[in-house]
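Subject: Protein record for review, amino acid sequence with backbone structure tokens
Category: Structural biology, sequence-to-fold work with a learned token vocabulary.
Format: Residues in single-letter code; tokens as whole numbers, each standing for a residue.
Body of memo: The sequence and its backbone structure tokens, given next.
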Amino acid sequence: MMDFKLPEELQMLQQSLRRYVDNEMIPHERETLEGNELKPEWRAKFQDGMKKLGLWMMDVPEEHGGPGLSLLAKSIVWQELGRTIALPAREDGITGPQVRHILFQLQGEMREKYLLPTLRGEKRGCFAQTEPDAGSDPGGMRTTAVLDGDHYVINGVKRFITGAGKSDFMQLMAATDRAKGSRGGISCFIVDMNTPGVTLTAQYETMMGDRPWEIVLDNVRVPVPHRVGEEGKGFGLAQKWLGAGRVKHGSRALGVAERALEMAVKYSHQRSTFGKPLAERQGVQWQLTDIWMNLDVATLLVRRAASLIDDGQEARVEAYHCKYFSDEMAFQAIDRCMQIHGGIGLTTDLPIERMWRQQRSYRITEGASEVMRTVIARHVMKAYA
């Protein structure tokens, strides 16, 4: 059996980070953003805070100059930062460059050209996988990469790509064999955004405030050395990163649910109706109890998935389970928090409405809940056949 009690050093990290979020972020969370962008002065302040906490470059392994945090340690950071709306919904950057697993696979000249400048903050990349007809189903990808001499010719459309407008390059997934789909037919490429044929054609306004892009690739010629890893092995590279990404979803959801519980309990003691505090009404007590119990379950799921991945074990189903349950749980928690607050919960004076909008989006992005359930169902049907 795995012990899910946090090691002492991670307990200390969680306590220190919670104090920072409570004292430096939450009191100012309505003033840190301009639209969905972190204001420069607050970005600098929060980055300085992360450096003092030893969390700068937290996504970077020790051999590349980072602290080499385990996924379990990162999950604690994501959980605590998830308790505040002081940061943008995505790509906040306060812990340093967000470097995906893909870049660490680069060697030689490619490493010098892309990985090292990214680590130094000189370049920025985005991840381009989602398409109009292939979001949660990457096997249906229509963007193709056809080998032509010493180049690949890439054609297709990518949609809802976060950060594309500010990126110098993209980590692009394209089908090199559409018949094989995600089972050996998808390859990964590094493509400069200023490559002829690459066009940003649309930017979408979302209810979360972020503005992802659509990218059109029209006969884009990419040198063979810009392929990352072997041909047809790109989906595996993406999945390794997405597994950690699903733990991130689950971790962030823990922070949302805990903040929802904190706000709902506090308000239930303050607000009285028909001569009685809400806290004394069984209907409210049961809602708060459900939030607490589900938060407890989700915490175990997150820590199990993170621990298994840290141990190098196959944890695909656990990561799916973690994302599905936690994202659904957190949305229900913040929705109940809003209901308990009544009309004041709908206003922008409180963080509830923003957390509600953000958490609603996480039930769709990086794998919709229905897709998570479908994959889990395959596991169940096989395990109990």
